[in-house]
């Protein structure tokens, strides 16, 4: 989890919104799964 906190801090200091979902880790990602992805998303 420490690396996720560091990533959020790094993105926030560079002007990005410090909000992200990590599959099977963050609460919204656990609850909603892949429904959080935009329609047509491809990895």
Can you give me a brief rundown of this structure?
This protein is mostly helical.
Shape: globular
Structural Rg = 12 Å
SS class: mainly alpha
Largest sheet entry? none
Number of helices: 2
What percent strand?
Answer: under 5%
Instruction: Report the uncertain regions.
Output: none
Q: Give the termini separation.
A: 23 Å
Helix content: 40-55%
Write the H/E string, N to C.
HH
Average residue pLDDT? 87
In total, how many beta strands? 0
Multimerization status: single chain
Please give the structural blueprint:
Elements: H1 2-13, H2 27-32
Task: Explain the overall architecture.
By secondary structure, this protein is mostly helical. It has helices at residues 2-13, 27-32. The longest helix is centred in the first third of the chain and has 12 residues, at 2-13. The chain starts with a helix and ends in an 11-residue tail after the last helix. The relative contact order is 0.15. The model has no long low-confidence stretch (mean pLDDT 87).
